[in-house]
Amino acid sequence: MSTARLTINLDALVTNWRNLDALTNCETAAVVKANGYGLDAGRVGKALARAGARNFFVAAAEEGGALRRALGPGPGISVFSGHMEGDAKLLKDFQLTPMLNSLDQMLRHFETLPGHPFGVQLDSGMNRLGMEAGEWAAVAEIALGQNPVLLMSHLACADEPGHGMNARQLHTFRELTDGLDIPRSLAATGGMLLGSDYHFDLCRPGIGLYGGLPFKDALPVVQLNLPVIQVRDMEPGESAGYGNAWVAKRPSRIATVAAGYADGLHRAMGQGGIQVYAGDTPCPVVGRVSMDLITVDVTDLAEVPDMLAILNERQTVDMLADAAGTIGYEILTSSGHRSARTYLG
Ligand SMILES: *Cc1c(COP(=O)(O)O)cnc(C)c1O
């Protein structure tokens, strides 16, 4: 078998959820959009529901339908993109709660699904999703008359605790929602770490559950092991891979390993000085990342194992992300489409 092996530790995921939950005095939900950040929303959702999570968030109604099938009735499932044209049947059949983002969505919702639970997403300055202050002022009375289950907004710069945007958005969110006596939510992972002012009634962590920054204390959740297909000896001056990008400076042993940019090992990592691990021993990835393969300098290993690890306790999704000039979120959501998966816990 020449596909990568992705191991997902659901016990570590649950521990991350519990540790985030312990930071606040409010409810901790879980964001499982993009198929649970690539790790399988159903498996992730079931593990967290068993641990006590009562509310889940997805990006689109379609994702909510798949999650409801996995979770069964009971847990709340909310949809960030709100109530889009054509969503009514999905929202109703799978008991999904849209976070309404505009007057248009609100009218659509009240018309097609009167009495169906909803929340409202407010824009506190990110200018991405949600009603702006003027729009909210115009419809708040009507919306509040229909008993929204949540008023929420999202922080643009929560991963930078010192950024002035955080306090500005907090202030705006409070102006829009103080005194309304409806449950409120502002914080994702980053916001949870900004302190209790940001917690309100419910927090919505995503990346921290899956082991990513800005939750520095997160346990790693994913391991990615790559099979070695072939090992060869090279003379000084010989080159490996596309574009002759790497040239041996000494007699070298090169392992060809089964994963490439189609497996989420971004091609830009080739310039980033990343390693793969033989047990605890790091070995540099050399040459270009190709679609299905990378080449690794294993000259200093006494013995080349069958598998080399590219994600493990030592090398996190954020370290791989740095090497590729991206963020842990993108590494998670782009890894593992072709891998054989094992779930622990
Ligand atoms: C993705 C998302 C989250 C979760 O964010 P993390 O940074 O992954 O914790 C929360 N709320 C909204 C609106 C989101 O889009």
TrEMBL record:
Q: Give its E.C. classification number.
A: 5.1.1.1
What superkingdom heads the lineage?
Bacteria
Q: Which residues carry this modification: N6-(pyridoxal phosphate)lysine?
A: 33
Q: Which cofactor does it need?
A: pyridoxal 5'-phosphate
Keywords attached to this Swiss-Prot or TrEMBL record, sorted alphabetically, are:
Isomerase, Pyridoxal phosphate
Pathway where it operates: Amino-acid biosynthesis; D-alanine biosynthesis; D-alanine from L-alanine: step 1/1
Kindly identify the residues recorded as the active site: 33 (proton acceptor), 242 (proton acceptor)
A Pfam match is: Ala_racemase_N
> Which of this chain's residues are annotated to bind substrate?
128, 291
SUPFAM superfamilies for this protein: Alanine racemase C-terminal domain-like, PLP-binding barrel
Task: Report the InterPro entries cross-referenced here.
Answer: Ala_racemase (IPR000821), Ala_racemase/Decarboxylase_C (IPR009006), Ala_racemase_C (IPR011079), Ala_racemase_N (IPR001608), Ala_racemase_pyridoxalP-BS (IPR020622), PLP-binding_barrel (IPR029066)
Which reaction(s) are listed as its catalytic activity? L-alanine = D-alanine
Molecular function (GO) terms for this protein are: alanine racemase activity
Alanine racemase C-terminal domain spans which residues?
A: 221-344
What is the stated purpose of this protein? Catalyzes the interconversion of L-alanine and D-alanine. May also act on other amino acids.
The protein's matches in PANTHER family, at most eight in alphabetical order, are given as: ALANINE RACEMASE, ALANINE RACEMASE, CATABOLIC-RELATED
- What protein family is recorded? Belongs to the alanine racemase family.
Q: What is this protein called?
A: Alanine racemase
Protein species of origin: Leisingera aquaemixtae
Q: What is the lineage of its organism?
A: Bacteria, Pseudomonadati, Pseudomonadota, Alphaproteobacteria, Rhodobacterales
